[in-house]
Design brief:
Layout (H helix, E strand, L loop, with lengths): L18 H11 L5 H13 L4 H27 L19
Helix pairs in contact: 1-3, 2-3
Length: 97
């Protein structure tokens, strides 16, 4: 079968990428999530705010990325299961093809 014909499916690779490699890559792509932590760090040095707020902001950012990766991974697995063949109930179709 050629690419444009019915029944063509994409090849699935046997490698599924490491979780931590994907997490680090997502961290690099979403560095803007650290802006609240940087602001809190500046406020720590400027006004004496507690440093644990900075670590809490970084921790929440990492938890958000992990949750987002879990949602995207789940959504990717949802469409991977092919539907079972169904009986053709159309009385006008050619059943020998």
């Amino acid at each position: 079968m050629r690419d444009g014909e019915r029944g063509h499916t994409m090849r699935r690779t046997s490698r599924s990428g490491s979780f931590f490699v994907c997490l680090v890559f997502n961290m690099l792509l979403n560095l803007e999530g650290l802006i609240p932590a940087v602001v809190l760090l500046v406020l720590h040095y400027a006004l004496g705010w507690p440093l644990w707020l900075t670590f809490a902001a970084v921790g929440l950012w990492v938890l958000y990325l992990i949750a987002w990766m879990a949602v995207i991974g789940w959504a990717g697995r949802c469409g991977s299961t092919p539907d079972a063949p169904k009986e053709n109930k159309n009385p006008y179709s050619n059943k020998h093809i």
